Predict the 3D structure of the following.
Amino acid sequence: MDMEQERRADEMAKEDKEDKPKQLDFAQARTTGVDPGEAAAGEHRVGPRFEQLREIMARLRSDTGCPWDREQTHESLRRYVLEEAYEVAEAIDQVHSEPGKLQEELGDLLLQVLFHAQLAQEEGLFDLADVADTLRRKLIRRHPHVFGPHAGGVKDAEAVARQWDKIKRQERSSAETAQGKVASQAEFADLSAQLPALVRATQVMRRAAEYGFTWRNVEEGLAKVREEVAELEEVICKQAGGVTAEPGAEKDDRDLVDRDRNNSDGNTSSRGVVSGGDRDWKSSSTVDSSERFADELGDLLIAVANLARLGGVDPEWALHRAVDKFIRRFVGMEKLAASQGQQLDTANLPQQLRWWQEAKQRLS
């Protein structure tokens, strides 16, 4: 951050010093039942409210606070950070129909930030002000087109994203002598291994693309997917000891129904599970073949994630949509079975697939 950016950052921080929130009266809250933050907040300012939240969190952790809150550690709270983040993501999908839900879930996620900052303050590591200041400086540093001496130089979102990534790379390699771009594990060091696998795969592919290591378009990405499918089919064929379909051959649910109807060699159970399927794979697989299957399946998933990136689609979002669609159709199958006086779990596969096709048509 240069001197000009530092000066602008310090000017923006002065507003925080001007906010003088009233001390929360917890004693009054106990006797009157009135939220102590309501009167203290006064005008709609963020600064005072954050200070009140900090005070509440400190009080909960104090000797006279909440026993559960006092027992928590960074490690014990880890699961809640993940849970709240996912609940925020779910609320985002419903923001236009239930905006209040997103407001509430963002608050729950903010609680985790406050909690960890309070724990860190007690341990002498950092406090909430340090967290805010670190973020403030990062936002200014990563937006030189807004806060820098050449503000306004970047106009479109794609250019901003490229600039952001460039600054991140500079930050990651600030201790090294730059002599051209050399891809190394350090390039991916700041990508959390705890990210959902599809998200992590997409981020890795995006960074690899910054070095020019990428397919040029969706068509080339799709060709790579077909290649990985063929390699997976080869593994499955060798494991099952049979003949696999030609790479790229397409089948739909009706093909499965026909195959089940016409199969007369005794390899089909009453539920329609054919020989070489899930049960036989598990019972006959070796460690090597299982690992090979996992390896090839992983390669296919990465190729699919990369195809989504090339097509401008978030694969995590696309998969969530597909799962939701599957659930709707499956529930539709259950309703169709019930309407015919049958139960889904006792019907054979051909009947289930007929209900599936009907559910698809009704819900399309």
